[in-house]
Amino acid sequence: MTDSLLAAGVKAFLVVFGLLTAFAYMTLVERRLLARFQVRLGPNRVGPLGLFQPLADAIKSIFKEDLVVSKADRLVFLLAPIISITFALVGFGLIPFGPKHAFFGWDPWVINLDVGILYLFAVSEMAVYGIFLAGWASNSKYSLLGSLRSSAALISYELSLGMSLLAPALLVGSLNLQDIVAWQENNGWLILPLFPAFALFFISSMAEAARTPFDLPEAEQELVGGYNTEYSSIKWALFQMAEYVHLITASALIPTIFLGGWRMPGFLPDIPFLWMFLKMALFLFVFIWIRATWFRLRYDQLMRFGWGRLLPAALIWFLLSALVVAAGASISVLNWFSLASVLVLLAVLLSGPARQKTAKGGAA
């Protein structure tokens, strides 16, 4: 029996409110963590321990002067950030945070779709429209170039992201996120037999959320601010909000698909909500850690990596997983293939510094 329409509406409101609140305080957490990584203080003046800084930022964004370029398409200029934040929010409602009726007698999710992964993939693709329309409507060459560049990058990495999700769907035999969590309870976490798919999904999620090293929309050295150059006030904040919501959704999808969701291995008790939030916090920390320590790729490097490295790797792993599933082989076969892929990856990473030393020695 599913929850009533009223219950679904209440849960949808709580999800939106929770995501917007999480976005506000994620900005504070990220700025404080970046400050720690870079040996500085970060925001600590507004309220105790700087906890009121997100409120101050929100007030500033709302009451700051809202400028619109004189020759901009005003309707599309207004719709672009709304499209971005809307499609960023609608995907989170599918993620299960516990068993049925665990949320005060209600199911701890907003909707349950048998085509959940397909729905998430379709919704994430719609974010491209908000980015492209923002650059086109601004009537600025910098904004247009930024939107074209960001759209091309998103499309290329969405292919790898979608391909990486096909392997879990094939192995479980379902696109439903709750079926994937239940399968992992009986057969173990999918990260073990499908580690390459996990790595591909993780990297593609960073690109989708425009995170370092894929933060080309913020490449101020080249395009001022990318597709949102001409935006200010709350409209600019909506684009930032959409990026952070994508990041939070990715941090919830990764444990749901590959790390057992809200469940833990048998020697630890299953505590609804708690384990899921802890896993999300772990991946959010990793995303921030990467931003603090990695460098931004050039556009040609980003596209070469997406089309020339990530997509072929995703296609090869999907075909390999499909062959194993079609042959009816044991999961242990995928475990061995997964281990072999980890060893190959380590060999490639370790050979990089060796090649650089050889090149320097030859040049000398």
Which structural traits does this protein have?
364 residues, mainly alpha, 12 helices, globular
What's the short version?
This protein has 364 residues and is an all-alpha fold.
Structural description of this entry:
This protein is mostly helical and 364 residues long. It has one domain. It is 69% helix and 0% strand. It contains twelve helices and no strands. It has helices at 5-37, 53-63, 74-89, 116-137, 141-172, 177-187, 195-208, 220-223, 233-258, 274-293, 299-326, 331-363. It starts with a helix and ends with a helix. The model has no long low-confidence stretch (mean pLDDT 87).
How far apart are the termini? 73 Å
- Which percent bin holds the helix content? 55-70%
User: How would a textbook summarize the main sheet?
Assistant: none
The best one-word shape is: globular
Strand content: under 5%
- The low-confidence parts are none
Give the SSE layout.
Layout: H1 5-37, H2 53-63, H3 74-89, H4 116-137, H5 141-172, H6 177-187, H7 195-208, H8 220-223, H9 233-258, H10 274-293, H11 299-326, H12 331-363
Helix pairs in contact: 1-2, 1-9, 1-10, 2-9, 3-4, 3-9, 4-5, 5-7, 5-11, 7-9, 9-10
